[in-house]
Every structure is written in C-alpha cells, then in structure tokens.
Amino acid sequence: MQKNWQRWGTGVIALGILVALVMRVLGRPLMESGNLLFMVGLVLLVVGAILILARGHLFTGWRHRRRKGMDALPGEKVDVHDVATVKNSPIRVTAGARFSLLSGTGLIVVGIILTLI
C-alpha cells in the first residue's frame, strides 16, 4: 500500500513523462524536455533539503547581543542542557520533504534519460 506522499511523487513523475511526450508530439526536441525536467527536479530537491533543515532546530540557543546597560530580555537566559537536548534530537523528515526528494530524484533521472536519447 503506497502512502500519500508516494502516490503524489509517482504522479508528478508520470506527469513529467506526459509533458515530455506532449512536447515531443508538438515537435520540440527531447533534449529540451529533458533539460526542463532536470531543472524542475533540481528545484524539488532544493525544496526537500529546505524542508528537512527547517525541522533541524538550527537556531536554538542563539542569543541577541545586548548593549551596555540594557536589561536582559525575558527569554534570553537559556539553559545549556536544554539547547543540547533540542539540537541533538533526531532528524525528522516530513512527508512533504519525502515527496520533494522522491519527485526531484525521479524527474532528474527521467531528464537525464531523455537528454541521452
């Protein structure tokens, strides 16, 4: 049984192949459709990487610099152990990130195949 993100990813790859076939019927060279699918795949890979990094707690523990004489901000004092616990938590890959990575990889492979033909 396919999960929802797998179904959508497979559908996007199938749509890419369908677009390439329509472009071929309209007289466009296969290399052009391969380049288009490759670029869309790269964009989807970048989106997937951004979605993974968004859940990475990269900015946990950052502090704002105070000037001399300013009072401490309410949330400025963060315990070091709390920051370490959050930063060392496992990486979570969401369904949207999986969809983007699957679709991007599939479109890149199809784009390379169409470019080589």
TrEMBL record:
Residues 34-116 form the DUF3899 domain. Keywords: Membrane, Transmembrane, Transmembrane helix. It holds the Pfam family DUF3899. It comes from the Bacteria. The chain crosses the membrane at residues 37-58, 97-116. This is DUF3899 domain-containing protein. It comes from Levilactobacillus namurensis DSM 19117.
